[in-house]
Write a structure and sequence with these properties.
Blueprint: E1 13-15, E2 20-22, E3 26-30, H1 31-37, H2 46-52, E4 57-58, H3 67-78, H4 83-103, E5 106-111, H5 119-128, E6 134-139, H6 142-155, E7 160-165, H7 168-174, E8 182-187, H8 197-210, E9 216-222, H9 227-233, H10 240-256, E10 265-272, E11 277-284, E12 288-292, E13 297-301, E14 306-313, H11 317-326, E15 330-336, E16 342-348
Parallel strand pairs: 3-7, 4-14, 5-6, 5-8, 6-7, 8-9
Antiparallel strand pairs: 1-2, 2-3, 9-16, 10-11, 11-14, 12-13, 15-16
Helix pairs in contact: 3-10, 4-5
The structure holds N,N-dimethyl-L-histidine.
N,N-dimethyl-L-histidine binds next to β14.
């Protein structure tokens, strides 16, 4: 893979045009700009055009995560109603030593690394086994990836980090062979739940292709539970989830020269029981027209019309293990919390 920086010489360097950074222990490569430059991704915004011109309207959830959206998501994770983050963290706290003991010395690759908070539990466990520490965080937000990586370097003096800014698909294709005995791709937070079944299938195939035989995949999944608990988690009393949802429109304005007025939309989230999924929408309050100049797109909205911005599927552990097995990913062990609200599955190719 092409490296965007010139030389290391032990001094921090930043190439602001490409957001790439390199020091002796930290390297960050911006796959988004690499690909835009090589025209590997010529259709930027075509997903927005497609989503807003169909009925009912949709927008892809990846547009939540500009720098502001990533900060809001971190706030969601701290909310009293939003149980997934703390439940998954409690499982990791209990079982990180067992998980890392099962993999042995291992490079950690994390998809959607964000603030890397839960990853620390795994890094601590690898450090406790006196294993070398190598971490490959992958995130679409350069800002959060860089700031988290720098903090990790301060806290783990022997840690080596190779960050990748880009989509999971791009990053998984770019993984170079690990220098450690094995590798574990980690996908926490039940972000898998934001994929439609067909996308999930494609994603598992990408994981399978990125791993060598014997390497690991650690998956965190939110489990099915009573509707009221689920709906509270996506309709928090402080309105952070509502702001997170509406921020997508601000992101589109900034990214595609748009004129969405967030005052003309409201947050709406509910649990679709037959499909076992939370659905998040933006509901239009008044008929109006929106223009996205950079996409040469004009969109008409009726009062009451909705844009679906996210699904968040809730899983069954047995079914999930069967789906993983169908891709050659054999479940080695499963851990849950006492209420069985969340599950962690360790699989091996
Ligand atoms: C990132 N993902 C797993 C979150 C979820 O719960 O589906 C995103 C989120 N949307 C609203 N709150 C949190």
């Amino acid at each position: 893979m092409r490296n965007l920086t010139q030389s290391a010489s032990g001094i921090s360097q930043a190439d602001h045009q490409h957001h790439s950074v390199k020091t002796e222990r930290l390297q960050i490569q911006d796959l988004v700009n690499l690909c835009a430059a090589s025209e590997a991704e010529p259709q930027v915004g075509s997903d927005v055009i497609q989503g807003l011109t169909q009925t009912p309207k949709t927008l892809p959830p990846q547009y939540f995560y500009d720098d502001r959206g990533s900060v809001l998501f971190e706030q969601i994770c701290e909310l009293p109603e939003y149980y997934p983050t703390r439940t998954e963290a409690s499982i990791l706290r209990h079982y990180a030593s067992e998980i890392t003991g099962m993999t042995g010395a291992c490079e950690l690759v994390e998809l959607g690394s964000g603030s890397s908070t839960k990853t620390r539990l795994l890094l601590d466990a690898y450090a406790a086994h006196a294993y070398p520490l190598r971490y490959v965080p992958i995130d679409v937000s350069a800002g959060i990836l860089e700031s988290s990586a720098k903090q990790l370097l301060l806290d783990y003096p022997s840690l080596q980090i190779q960050g990748l800014v880009g989509t999971y698909e791009l990053a998984l294709q770019q993984l170079t062979p690990t220098q450690l005995p094995t590798r574990m791709i980690v996908f926490l937070g039940s972000t898998l739940g934001n994929f439609k079944p067909q996308e999930c299938d494609v994603f598992f195939s990408q994981i399978q292709s990125a791993l060598e035989v014997g390497e690991y995949f650690l998956l965190g999944v939110d489990l099915q539970k009573p509707t009221s608990l689920l709906e509270d988690a996506y309709n928090d009393s402080q309105g952070v989830t509502a702001e997170f949802n509406l921020n997508m429109l601000k992101h589109l304005n900034q990214r595609f020269e748009g004129n969405f007025d967030t005052q003309l939309f409201e947050h709406w989230a509910f649990y679709n029981e037959p499909l076992n999924q939370i659905e998040m929408h933006l509901r239009c309050l008044k008929a109006h027209t929106v223009r996205l100049e950079a996409l040469d797109l004009t969109v008409k909205f009726e009062a009451g019309e909705t844009i679906m911005t996210e699904i968040s599927r809730k899983f069954d552990l047995d079914v999930m293990q069967q789906e993983l097995q169908a891709k050659g990913l054999t479940s080695r062990k499963v851990w849950t919390d006492p209420k069985q609200w969340f599950g962690l599955i360790l699989c091996q190719l």
